[in-house]
Amino acid sequence: MRKGRPNDPERRTRILRAALEVIASEGVHAASYRRIAVQAGVPLGSTTYYFADLETLIVTAFETLRDGLEPRYAAPMRDARTDSDIVDALVAATCGSTAPTLEDIRLYEEMHLYGARSPRVADLLREFQQESLVILRCSLSDGAARAVDALMWGWWSYRALNDDDPLDTSTVRDAYRALVSMATTARDPLNGPRRA
């Protein structure tokens, strides 16, 4: 505790939130200690106190996205009982009720760009992908899970670049239906036929 004033237990959280706000609005290249401190409304020294280097601050901020990404389709996919349920969950996560906001998508895009230069963020992206694939493989073959994951990220990128031209839900649904249909008729080399 500082003399005359208690420590701010939320300061570290505010710094991480501010880092994501700066990255979402101005890009990861704009994320400096000074800019983040101003956004968080904290002294500049607080950023270096909690995060020894800027890379660690950025990586830690990106790590907090895991909590927002996982619920996109995790629970609906776990609850899916039919192929139609699976397709509904995927459509909702792409452009429906559980889809990320444009700000979220911009953060994911910035994360991918930064991951091309940062091994730590590249590792984090691989972890996110593996977590996504684990969920998808509960209902789909490995190949279909990978195709769905790639397609969903691609459509999210499309949304970020074309916010004035929304995705056509029926097109999204037809594409997922085709992938799910292929997965249920394909043969899994380890476990035999997928469920019908």
From TrEMBL:
Recite the UniProt keywords alphabetically. DNA-binding
Pfam (any one): TetR_N
* HTH tetR-type domain residues: 9-69
Gene3D superfamilies in UniProt = Tetracycline Repressor, domain 2
State the DNA-binding region(s).
32-51
User: Is the keyword Ribosomal protein assigned to this protein?
Assistant: no
- Superkingdom, according to UniProt? Bacteria
Q: Does the keyword 4Fe-4S apply?
A: no
By its UniProt entry, which InterPro entries does this protein fall under?
Answer: Homeodomain-like_sf (IPR009057), HTH-type_TetR-like_transc_reg (IPR050109), HTH_TetR (IPR001647)
Q: This chain belongs to which protein, by name?
A: TetR family transcriptional regulator
Q: Which organism is it from?
A: Leifsonia kafniensis
